[in-house]
C-alpha cells in the first residue's frame, strides 16, 4: 500500500484505528466505508477525485488494513457499528454524507438505525444488507476457521489471492492485488483474516433488515451489474425496501466496483452528492 496509507490514529473501543482526511476543511464532508476483506485502499482513487469538491474522510476498520489486528479482538458488525459512531463523534461530524461498500454498508446502516448516527445522505455500493449473505466459500471458512487457521502460509496466501481476485469482474492489476492481500499475510494478518470471517454473522443484518423502511434520507443504491459475490437481484430487492431509493447499475463491474469501474462510480457518486 505504498501509495495509500492513512496517517492518523484513533484509539477506539475495538483497537487502534488508522484514518485520514482529504480536501478543503470547509467543504461538505463525505465519509467512505470499506468492506471485507478490504480496507480504505479500495477507495483511494474515488477519494482523491471527490476531495476536489468535498472534505473526504477515510478509515480502516479495526482488524482491517493498517488498523490494529490482535488476538481476541471484536471485529464483528456490532463492534464496527459502535466504532463508526465513535469516529463520527471524534471527527465532529453531525450530518455527513456516507458512502459505504459491502460490509461497510451494514456498518453504516447499523450506526444509523441502532445508534442514532445522522447522515445527510447515504450511498450503498454492493452492500451486505439482505439475508441470506455470504458466498459458499465464505460460509465454508466461517464454519471451519480453526482448520483454515492452520494452513501453511503459502497455501493461505494463495487462498486469499484467489478469493480477493474473484471480487473483480475485469481482473485486478497485480500490484493492486498484492496491496489488498498483504494485510492478511504473516503471523498477525493470517489469524486476523479468519477472525473477521468467523465473526461475520448474518444475525447482525437480521436485526435491522426489517427497519429499512424507516430510512428517511436520500439513498443511492449502486451495484456492479456483474457482481458474483452479491447478485444484482439483491440490488432490486433492497431498492424496494428503502423509500425513494435511487438504483444505479454499473455495467462491466463486479463486486469491487471501485477497481472495475472507478470513473463510472465516481461520476454516479458526484451526481448524487450534488
Verbal overview:
This protein is an alpha/beta fold and 274 residues long. The chain has a single domain (8-134, 201-273), classed as Rossmann fold (3-Layer(aba) Sandwich). Helix content is 41%, strand content 16%. Strands 1-2-4-3-5-6-7-8 form an eight-stranded mixed sheet, with helices on both faces. Pfam families: Abhydrolase_1. This is Alpha/beta hydrolase. It comes from Actinomadura livida. One of its GO terms (molecular function) is hydrolase activity.
Taking all Cα atoms into account, the compactness measure Rg is 17 Å
Number of domains: 1
Q: For the record, what is the CATH homologous superfamily label? A: Alpha/Beta hydrolase fold, catalytic domain
CATH topology label: Rossmann fold
User: Shape, please?
Assistant: globular
What is the highest CATH level, the class?
Answer: Alpha Beta
Pfam family, one: Abhydrolase_1
Domain AB hydrolase-1: 29-262
Keywords: Hydrolase
InterPro entries: AB_hydrolase_1 (IPR000073), AB_hydrolase_fold (IPR029058), Carboxylesterase_BioH (IPR050228), Epox_hydrolase-like (IPR000639)
Which helices and strands occur, and which strands form pairs?
Blueprint (H helix, E strand, L loop, with lengths): L7 E5 L2 E8 L6 E5 L10 H7 L4 E6 L16 H15 L5 E5 L1 H13 L5 E5 L10 H8 L1 H4 L4 H13 L8 H8 L4 H13 L4 H7 L9 E6 L8 H9 L4 E5 L6 H4 L1 H12 L1
Parallel strand pairs: 3-4, 3-5, 5-6, 6-7, 7-8
Antiparallel strand pairs: 1-2, 2-4
Brief descriptors of the model:
single chain, 274 residues, alpha/beta, Rossmann fold, 8-stranded mixed sheet, 41% helix
Amino acid at each position: 500500500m505504498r501509495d495509500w496509507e492513512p496517517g492518523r490514529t484513533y484509539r477506539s473501543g475495538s483497537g487502534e484505528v488508522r484514518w485520514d482526511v482529504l480536501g478543503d476543511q470547509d467543504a461538505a464532508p463525505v465519509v467512505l466505508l470499506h468492506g471485507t476483506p478490504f480496507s480504505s485502499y479500495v477507495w483511494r482513487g474515488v477519494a482523491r477525485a471527490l476531495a476536489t469538491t468535498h472534505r473526504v474522510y477515510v478509515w480502516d476498520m479495526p482488524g482491517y488494513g493498517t488498523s490494529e489486528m490482535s488476538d481476541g479482538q471484536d471485529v464483528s458488525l456490532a463492534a464496527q457499528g459502535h466504532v463508526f459512531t465513535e469516529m463520527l463523534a471524534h471527527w465532529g461530524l453531525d450530518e455527513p454524507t456516507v458512502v459505504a461498500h459491502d460490509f461497510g454498508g451494514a456498518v453504516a446502516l447499523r450506526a444509523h438505525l441502532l445508534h442514532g448516527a445522522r447522515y445527510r445522505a447515504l450511498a450503498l455500493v454492493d452492500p451486505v444488507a439482505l439475508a441470506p449473505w455470504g458466498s459458499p466459500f465464505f460460509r465454508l471458512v466461517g464454519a471451519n476457521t480453526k482448520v483454515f487457521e492452520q494452513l501453511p502460509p503459502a497455501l493461505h496466501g494463495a487462498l486469499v489471492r484467489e478469493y480477493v481476485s474473484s471480487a473483480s469482474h475485469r481482473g485486478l492489476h497485480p500490484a493492486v492485488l498484492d496491496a489488498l492481500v498483504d494485510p492478511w499475510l504473516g503471523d498477525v494478518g493470517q489469524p486476523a483474516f479468519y477472525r473477521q470471517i468467523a465473526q461475520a454473522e448474518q444475525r447482525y443484518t437480521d436485526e435491522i433488515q426489517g427497519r429499512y423502511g424507516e430510512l428517511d434520507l436520500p439513498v443511492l443504491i449502486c451495484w456492479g451489474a456483474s457482481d458474483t459475490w452479491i447478485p444484482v437481484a439483491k440490488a432490486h430487492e433492497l431498492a424496494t425496501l428503502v423509500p425513494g431509493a435511487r438504483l444505479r447499475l454499473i455495467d462491466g463491474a463486479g463486486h469491487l466496483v471501485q477497481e472495475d469501474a472507478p470513473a463510472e462510480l465516481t461520476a454516479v457518486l458526484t451526481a448524487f452528492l450534488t
